[in-house]
Design goal:
single chain; alpha/beta; 5-stranded parallel beta sheet
């Protein structure tokens, strides 16, 4: 049996939002679940996040936004990925995102939105569902 290398995912923060505890917890949970995690600390804009995702050959991006700018950040990120012919990279959203905005983010192509209180088990299961069970890999 040929073993596959672990799937690579990028976890990070967008913009000036500096509170990264949740993103770090998610990164560790994904690593513990067998993913290879590339972590981007705060201060990154969507274009830079997309560039790193392509350069690092990730299958997914998990991005935390607590600033209230989630609609703009994810719209820009999805556009930046498409501009790089990388719209096959799956995008997950987390942070303080109002439930009323979930449908809009999903229409952009965000796979799932995790709000406050989402468990690491649920997050890992969603990544597994979207990536491992669908045979993702770049």
């Amino acid at each position: 049996m040929v073993s596959r290398p672990p799937l690579r995912v990028l976890v990070g923060k967008a913009g000036l939002d500096k509170h990264d505890r949740g993103a770090r917890i998610v990164a560790r949970a994904l690593r513990d679940a067998g993913y290879e995690v590339v972590y981007l600390p705060a201060g990154r804009m969507p274009a830079e996040i997309a560039e790193v995702a392509v350069d690092e050959d990730v299958a997914a991006i998990g991005l935390s936004v607590l600033s209230g700018a989630h609609r703009r950040v994810f719209a820009d990120l999805v556009a930046e990925l498409a501009a790089r012919d990388a719209d096959d990279i799956r995008v997950f959203a987390g942070g303080t995102i109002p439930p009323a905005d979930t449908a809009e983010l999903e229409q952009l192509g965000v796979v799932e939105v995790f709000g406050p209180g989402a468990t690491t088990e649920r997050i890992v299961a969603a990544f597994d569902q979207a990536l491992r069970q669908q045979g993702a890999g770049r």
